[in-house]
């Protein structure tokens, strides 16, 4: 019977994913008219980003489906589905006394606000430029004062995004790099927890098994889950592609003089298609897991206040929760301070 239920859920997920996979693929296929007549190398760049966007978005849809359908299936059966494996918190030394735990410091929250606001502006102004002949984008361009004004806003937002990326690297530098007797060395700190490792792959497959009913134990995460790490490192990938291609297009005459028209054409294709990928991932995957998932709906304020509810910490980061419980049990004074990502 359990195998039948697992097969049913698996077929449902695959069917919905296949249908939703056609959405980004069909939308991106509209570039076929542009691809025709392109040089082979430029066609390769265009096809690469089409395939990358469609596959990554389909993967994101699969993750969202797994989470939501598993929750819905549990509600139908009247069963809790977000068990952390540690059990329900109860009075005593095996739980944290406070209702919220510090998770993000002030600088991390400022970086996120800059990233979020600049990204929204870039997405709105960039997509309007890409589809300027379509409604409502052409009307929006007129409302903003014309294409030149829109481009200026887009470039200013892009500059803020690049500066925010540099701000983050400077923020990380003291924790990552140190000097001992004048010799630079790598510090072993909490930043290591953001580096993908073998456990992340194991957690992904265990999550698949948990969803399909092959195991009763969901994956247990430390400070960051594999999905949060994917989100984090995808920003570096996206910022590198978008900033690099954007700078090239910012001075097209100089770019042509230095690299020829080939680089300008490649930059335009990469910039445009990477933007579609970023917007699709944020809207479908990041927004769901950050704010729309049943366990946090309708809004998760952690990244804005810096504090995560203890119950949510236990559900989403049970290993981190257990570590904090041990620290608190060893020294109750520590309960007022949670280990930050950067110390």
List keywords for this structure.
343 residues, mainly alpha, two-stranded antiparallel ribbon, two-stranded antiparallel sheet, 13 helices, 4 strands, 68% helix, disordered C terminus
Sequence-ordered SSE layout with sheet pairings:
Layout: H1 2-28, H2 32-35, H3 40-77, E1 100-102, H4 106-130, H5 137-143, H6 147-176, E2 177-180, E3 183-186, H7 198-211, H8 226-250, H9 252-259, H10 261-292, H11 302-305, E4 307-309, H12 310-316, H13 318-330
Antiparallel strand pairs: 1-4, 2-3
Helix pairs in contact: 1-3, 3-10, 4-5, 4-6, 4-10, 6-8, 8-10, 9-10, 12-13
Description:
It is a single chain. With 343 residues, the protein is mainly alpha-helical. It is 68% helix and 4% strand. The chain is built from 13 helices and four strands. Strand 2 and strand 3 form a beta hairpin. The chain is globular and about 65 Å long. Mean pLDDT is 79; it is low at 29-36, 83-93 and 335-343.
Quick rundown:
By secondary structure, the protein is mostly helical. Helix content is 68%, strand content 4%.
């Amino acid at each position: 019977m359990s195998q039948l239920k697992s097969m049913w859920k698996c077929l449902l997920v695959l069917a919905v994913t296949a249908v939703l996979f056609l959405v980004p693929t069909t939308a991106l296929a509209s570039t076929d008219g542009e691809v025709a007549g392109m040089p082979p190398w430029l066609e390769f760049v265009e096809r690469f980003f089409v395939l990358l966007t469609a596959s990554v978005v389909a993967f994101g849809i699969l993750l969202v489906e797994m989470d939501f359908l598993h929750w819905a299936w549990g509600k139908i059966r009247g069963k809790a589905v977000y068990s952390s494996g540690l059990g329900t918190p109860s009075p005593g030394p095996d739980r944290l006394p406070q209702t919220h735990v510090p998770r993000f410091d002030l600088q991390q929250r400022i970086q996120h606000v800059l990233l979020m606001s600049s990204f929204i502006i870039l997405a709105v102004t960039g997509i309007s430029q890409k589809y300027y002949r379509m409604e409502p984008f052409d009307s929006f361009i007129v409302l903003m004062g014309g294409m030149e004004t829109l481009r200026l806003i887009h470039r200013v937002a892009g500059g803020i995004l690049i500066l925010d990326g540099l701000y983050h690297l400077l923020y990380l530098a003291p924790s990552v790099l140190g000097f001992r007797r004048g010799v630079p060395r790598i510090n072993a700190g909490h930043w290591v927890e953001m580096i993908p490792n073998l456990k992340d792959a194991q957690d992904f497959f265990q999550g698949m098994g948990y969803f399909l009913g092959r195991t009763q134990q969901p994956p247990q995460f430390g400070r960051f889950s594999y999905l949060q790490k994917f989100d984090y490192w995808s920003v570096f990938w996206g910022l590198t592609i978008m900033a690099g291609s954007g700078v090239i297009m910012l001075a097209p005459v100089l770019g042509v003089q230095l690299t020829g028209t080939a680089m300008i054409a490649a930059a335009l294709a990469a910039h445009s298609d990477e933007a579609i990928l970023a917007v699709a991932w944020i809207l479908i995957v990041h927004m769901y897991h950050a704010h729309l998932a049943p366990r946090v709906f309708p809004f998760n304020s952690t990244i804005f206040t810096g504090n995560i509810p203890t119950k949510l910490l236990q559900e989403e980061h049970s290993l981190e929760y257990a570590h904090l419980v041990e620290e608190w049990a060893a020294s109750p004074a520590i309960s007022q301070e949670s280990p930050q990502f950067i110390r």
